[in-house]
Amino acid sequence: SWKLRWFKLQGRxxxxxALNPDEPLGVIDLPTVRTCAALQxxxxxxxxxxxxxETPRRTFYxxxxxxxxxx
Length: 71
Description:
By secondary structure, this protein is mainly beta.
């Protein structure tokens, strides 16, 4: 299931938080990102633009409701 997260770019880090953007749950160190690409999932809703961010430790699956947010 999808969970709402807030993202904040801070230097070379992408911080993500649940409710309060100033209290991050975690950090993605952008120089360590291996892959960031759009997903082509035919089962996805028409209003979801999905993509993934792969790091050495974890793969994050994300979506936005606007195509521009995925770019």
